[in-house]
Design brief:
The protein is mostly helical. Helix content is about 80%, strand content about 0%.
Amino acid sequence: MRYVREIKYGLHVIFHPFDGFWDLKKEHRGSLAAALTFVVIVIMLSTFEKQTTGFLFNTVRLKDVNVVVDILTVTMIYVLWCVANWCLTSLMDGEGSMKDIFIAMGYALIPMILVRIPMIVLSLGITAEEGTFYYVLNAFSYIWTGILVFFGTMITHQYSFKKTVLTCILTVVGMGIIMFIGLLFFNVIQQMITFFTTIYKEIRF
């Protein structure tokens, strides 16, 4: 089944990022469906981690766990990065399409799945003195993912190392700008709704 092969190909991508990301784009060895599957798993794992991590390493109270917040957080970061990256690279002669970016970034999230599952199990059986192993794995999951995001961006757009560094920095800035514009837009809409609601109530009165 093609979908299963596309999921399995993720293991090749994370260990061989150069030809892995190249094949995702040029040979279509992956798909948007598989990439979004990894995103959904990360979302589910985020909530599961908060509920099952050993109490010595769990800084979140169960009553504060909100599935909706987890879904929105992961989805927003993923979508904002992809959109900001596409907007920016469109102006910087990037060769990747919006679909290519979404696929590459979805596959780049695989280390968050592979590393954090053992982290949860480890947290249930170690003491506070052995917590170094837990924190090292935690940092490793983010570093590995960051490296894949970097190489995924570089290979997808056929950029040099320096240009990729600049692109990643500007993408983060772009994410902030998009969030600011979005918040400003919703604030204006909210004020308009309040204004028209007030007028309606006055006329009705």
